[in-house]
DNA sequence: CCATCATTAAACAGAC
DNA sequence: AGTCTGTTTAATGATG
């Protein structure tokens, strides 16, 4: 302990220029007081100028902090009502708790909120004993659940009726118009489901669902483990009359996507949906965060954004088609992703993915709890991740703890945060749990390399998490730098832009800037996969993919079989395996065509992306495959794509346009051959993902990039 | 135990 | 002079 703190102070001393920022940041986090979501949200909100981030946030996604706040407000309202009743003698004096509970439950939330009293939460806590508060909270939760259920039910019915009407009318309409209408309905249903899911998960996260199974009315009893999107309609309908035709059809739509024209409505589970819940749940002036912006974004026919549209490209799984604007995207959506067997199958796959993720999340959380209980790590705290983590990146002692904790997972993997939790529990990705708990330290250790963690998809799916949670990403600096560079259309970034990407994408890197910036520079210089190119405006950094692949241990290349094998070996192998199976089942062409797996593009579909599987991500020039590129620096400048020189040697074998997203869907055989020649017996090892015969020795050694041959000469050890 | 490699720290130089 | 950028070395620790 003393050693840790000593080293901590020692290490923090050099970064004096960032000391103020770091300290203030930490003070914010801790001063905010355990409000994990709130702290994260405030962090995200305070960091202005992050175009992507704010854009995503402003789409109306309700943050956990908002939900929490909303529920707390409601709980307080109910508690106030309860106090009022007690004070005015409305409830019979001799009543026992159950009677009082009943009376309290009977108070509609909306009514309670319409009569706000002037009691502060602190006053409430002083007046009410903790058991009372808890009872009230539970009552309120149960009541709110009921109201929500009814609301959702009505909304679903209404939407379904609208949909049916629209479909009948659409028979006479042009197909596109119908598609647009369907899209709108689809969005609405989708948003409703998202809302339901968020509510349920939020409740579950607070332990309220499982806390009160008897009060939470039937359906919720079935989701202590996982809430699956496919289950939600059932869950919410379970209480109501099950025989209602509209509900049944909606339910079937949610579960069976195979056939009819109605199936396109209720399946997608894209997390970036703004739930339109404000008007019903908060009828009157309650100054909550459930603002009309969500309505505007969700109910309009032509919203300013679309959950399947982002960063100028279609987010449909495996598509990534570039669309200049929303209109074009809508057109593209209606043409390319119309209601057909393929789209239906893809949606079904997506459903299964989400479902598996949810299940996996529940299992992993449970496992983590058990592990922590076993290891006596905060056994008394059921929500170990609810608080913002303030790691000390400079402390190697912390890093040791973090790494060892991460490695203590049963499967021996330092779990990167899988995609399961990020959309719904932004502060708590599973698997990262123990690492983030003590974290601080570099949760890195080649996690992206050794375990083939798909950094691009990881980042894509846990984007919000890393952006808000002060958790070190489990990727190496090299991986992150490369990701930053590849995310840009030109695949080149200045050092400062790389810095900005780090701070924009990761809350963790908003502190201790001296440390990680130095590391970034160090990595840029050290790894020869990063090539510095003199530009007109200055120097930019690019990625030499071949070098990047070369420096990595070969895992697998191209072969879907290998991909599957590796996937099933990963920590979240189960869900990915099911994903694979689902893909195969739906004859999804993705895994069968190497070109579909893109490196830099945030492969929104696959939890695994090419790049981190060690597969060749870009078609690399076959010229000079055996010549060590380190011989002369000018060679580098030709291997990379520079703005001023769009068509250079690097692009020779690449038919794709020089600009645009990192989507060289032209990978493949030439590249593989090239690498195979260059790394004989390493890249292509068809039988097993990690061939035992492979040894990363000798020529794959850690090599320095001799930018200046003079300086290298005699210093090489 | 050794080789490899990621990370961190630090020194240094050049450009601005 | 100070800062930024870039290079290099060294130490440390993890991993296979």
UniProtKB/TrEMBL annotation:
Q: Where is the composition biased (Polar residues)?
A: 1-20, 622-640
Q: Fetch the PROSITE patterns from UniProt.
A: FORK_HEAD_2 (PS00658), FORK_HEAD_3 (PS50039)
Residue ranges, annotated region (Disordered): 1-61, 265-309, 409-450, 602-695
Alphabetized InterPro entries for the sequence: FH_FOXP4, Fork_head_dom, FOXP, FOXP-CC, TF_fork_head_CS_2, WH-like_DNA-bd_sf, WH_DNA-bd_sf
- An example of a Pfam family matching this protein is Forkhead
Subcellular location field = Nucleus
Q: State where it is primarily located.
A: nucleus
Stretches with biased composition (Gly residues) = 28-39
- Compositional bias of kind Basic and acidic residues: 292-303
Segments of the chain annotated as binding DNA: 472-545
In this chain the Fork-head domain maps to 472-545
Q: Which UniProt keywords apply?
A: DNA-binding, Metal-binding, Nucleus, Repressor, Transcription, Transcription regulation, Zinc, Zinc-finger
Q: Which stretches are tagged as biased composition: Low complexity?
A: 40-49
Per its UniProt record, what CDD domains does this chain match?
Answer: FH_FOXP4 (cd20067)
List all Pro residues biased stretches. Answer: 655-664
Give one GO molecular function term.
DNA-binding transcription repressor activity, RNA polymerase II-specific
Protein name stated in the entry: Forkhead box P4
What is the primary gene name for this protein? FOXP4
